[in-house]
Predict the structure.
Amino acid sequence: MRKSLLLLLAVTFPCFSLTPLQFLKERTTPAEEPVLSEVISVINNQPPINGHTLQSIHALLRQQSPHLSEAVINKVLTTLKCLDTYHIEHNPVLTIIDYSLPSSEKRLWVFDLSTNQLLFHTYVSHGIRSGTLLTQYFSNQYDSKASSIGVYKTEQAYYGREGLSLRLAGLDQGFNDNAIGRYLVMHSGWYVDEDFIKKYGRAGRSWGCPALPMHLAKPIIDTIKDNSLMVIYYPSDNWFLKSKFLNCDNLSPVRRSAIQTVEENLLPPKHETRDGILFVDLNKNNQREENEPIVVITADNYLRFFHRPPPLERMLRRQIDRIEYIALSQDEFTTLLGNTQDPLPDFSHFYFVIPEVKRLRGYYITEMKLMTLGKIKTISKRDDSGENPGTDDYLISFDNRPAATLKTTAHFIRWLGL
């Protein structure tokens, strides 16, 4: 028992044995001690952040990235100064995300402050509960599926369910300090590629992670991993007032006593609204289960049939053979059945999709699979049974299996919606 306790202490409390240098780094030094600040900066082999250095960084950001707003630059410079004030170490690589820009624009920048270079400028996703085209809502809460603003440091890269990924440690108390526990990581997303954005008008959305274009994820992650700085910006008055990285010169008791949190008007709505989609009630229990397929058509056919952009809110989160699919609502399904201009002989444009869970690199990943139910012979509307008022059920018959009922569900489906 005693040995186990000692082992636990050794693993969980390494700070019990700090070297003199580590103790000096860990010590929080008031801004009024400039000499000690200079000493620690020299020890860390980092130049002190003084006016001249901030001016040169400002010039770099302005010259290398004309689309980066002055408001963002000012907050980044303040962050760099405050990090130095608090003696928080980081390497010279700086990543900036500006969530005041829409996801259809390039809003991520990576700089190397040691070589005065802009290394990357590209697209980045936001959380599915943070908005559609615009990023409007933020959260630090578990299972919110929303993005988090604030100051981060990068940790190790690893291979997970999304492929190569990068752990992000949130430093901003109340704004992003649950990032590790929420598994907010940087990873790739096919729905952030430029071709997708040009085709559909915006990037797809993650569950809160800043996802990158597929071809840039590896070079960016390899560049910024292991102790670089990331600032995720949004013009939040609460963040401006309460973040310690934006107020190290501000000794106001209002800021010090205020509870740090995302303001109410920036939190995602408590209740999500979803379109009802059709599923095959194979289990005959009037509720969709994971083994029961949903009805989809290709995104290209959706555009051709309805002459409007496909709703990404009902797009499968995984492609099938590099093709995007849209789950059909009841109204859309009814329209297609009665569409005489675009008849559907043998209903060949309808597909049935289920998730398929596989194990890869020690993680379980979800892929989408077209389910073969046989050739559709007929589809007929059933009378409203009263189980789902305001919705219609359909009886669908196949050539080689018993007939089944199509029903509507608006419940959350984890692999549906971008």
Observations:
- Confidence is low (pLDDT under 50) at residues 1-46.
